[in-house]
Amino acid sequence: MTLSPEDADARLERLRRATGSARSRPGFVDRVAAAVDREAVPDWIGDLTRAARKLIPIAAVAAALGVAWATASERAWNDAIAASADLDVEW
Amino acid sequence: MIDLEKAAAAVSAGDRSAFTRIVAATHERLVRVSARLLGSVPDAEDVVQEAYVKAYRALAAGKFDGRSKVSTWLHRIVLNATTDAKRARKGEPPRSESSPPDVAGSTEARLALRELGDWLSTLPDEQQVVVVLKAVEELSSAEIAEILGCSEGAVEQRLVRARTALRKMGADS
């Protein structure tokens, strides 16, 4: 059986009007807030995370400088070792 | 009416109470949309609550990029959760309300929700969503396209297909 366009549209319109008053039961917002509270991390952890997020660029620059310094130090150390190997030490 | 974008920014900055204001301002429509798809207010409340928790988690973690409006983003989360719930509960009847009938709408509204949910469940998921958003919630094709992340043409096409399928379904579905 095929409904005429009017039949299907009329049914949809009737159901639209009849369901327009559907709403959540009282206390829904409070229940959501309680669920969010259970989910939320304690404030101090949240503060720490947000602060840490802001420090990421500084930490990245510090890490890059650290790597550059370590590379330069290693090169200087190797040069010093190489230079000392060329020395004729008299006892 | 609160500014949802500002409230979302406040949540991202650690103001949890701003999220309650978002819920208070948006839950009526979101629960109604979900109930119209699921056929029951209690089922819709469960789904929408879970969707809000997801949204809070994303905002608190700074994962909401602000590319879409907050209301559009919330609709998207709720519709995805509703579709998932519908798939998971396929074959199970919608939960009936234990509260007095006048609490969550009239008996007529509850029966109509059940009838609408059953009628639409014969359609593919994306067509059900478009029928509810366009023909029942009366959103524009542009709004629906933004929520679903598709073109307005795709919205119109889904609606035409859905209407055709509903007409073919027969009066006793």
Question: What class do helices, strands and sheet pairing of chain A give?
Answer: mainly alpha
How helical, in percent, are the residues of chain A?
A: over 70%
What is the H/E string of chain A?
HHH
**Main sheet record of chain A:** none
Q: How many helical elements of chain B?
A: 8
* Most extensive contact: A-B, 38 and 51 residues
Roughly what is the average pLDDT of chain A, rounded to an integer? 82
Write up what this structure looks like:
The complex is a heterodimer of chains A (91) and B (173). With 91 residues, chain A is mostly helical. Chain A has a domain at 43-91. Chain A is 76% helix and 0% strand. Chain A contains three helices and no strands. The longest helix of chain A has 43 residues, at 43-85. The termini of chain A are far apart. Chain B has helices at residues 4-12, 16-38, 41-60, 70-88, 107-120, 125-136, 141-148, 152-169. In chain B, helix 3 (41-60) crosses helix 4 (70-88) and helix 4 crosses helix 7. Chain B is an all-alpha fold. The interface between A and B is large, with 38 and 51 residues.
Describe how the helices and strands are arranged.
The complex is a heterodimer of chains A (91) and B (173).
Chain A: H1 5-18, H2 28-39, H3 43-85
Chain B: H1 4-12, H2 16-38, H3 41-60, H4 70-88, H5 107-120, H6 125-136, H7 141-148, H8 152-169
List keywords for this structure.
heterodimer; A: 91 residues; mainly alpha; B: 173 residues
